[in-house]
Design brief:
3% strand, 273 residues, flat, mainly alpha
Amino acid sequence: MKSITFGQFYPADSVLHRLDPRIKVILTVLYIVCSFLCKNIVSFALLLLSSLLLIAAGKIPLKIILRGLRPVLIILIFTAVLNIFWTKGEHLLFGWKFIQIYAEGLYAALFILIRIAALIIGTGMLLTYTTTPIALTDALEDLLSPLKKLHVPVHSFAMMMTIALRFIPTLVEETDKIMTAQKARGADFSTGSLIDRAKALIPVLIPLVVSAFNRAEDLAIAMECRCYHGGDGRTRMTVRHLRVADFVPLALVVLLGASLIALNVIGFGYTMR
């Protein structure tokens, strides 16, 4: 549970940390779109290279990034295995009774691994690792500000999204504490069938839900004590202004998307349908 680093801010002095949070939100959306534009081995290699460049630009230790991938390792392996055994093609590599492995299945498994890893690394580097909760809230509110004319509570929506995102590491830490306490009382979460393990988690889920509601109530009381009443008439201590340097990463991501489309049209090696 301690390996989950998603939602945690890592303080550092890097290009991504100094980037305007509004640009980083837009970059995140564009990067997600770019990850789904990849169709061949060269385009996926370029996507993987871009995620490594994001790690270098954010000055986040590689061990922290890899530790953040550990919780989804089972999902990655399960997805890869499904693609290997269920994807059919023209080039049969291994066949035995009902088990058939095609080259297309191996390519599909490799591509899905790179895509999921790039998505997790890219969104983490552009948002949670390099952006404070206050900056992220202000960025979402600014980007959604045109909806205020339709009487949409933009500030409340942005605040709820940010609080939910930043509560992830808090709830993970609380879950770890509860499981440790249950193990000290003789609970066993690692043996038995799948149904037995699911039943063993019931003593963890109930106190976790109670703790989540208690933390939510404490947060609401703290916000009321600080005279927080939403976004009406609320000013900001820091007024952000876009710089020319903020648009350089935006142009690079657009160039990345155009390069991926060009690589798909050229078609290097195996191309997904």
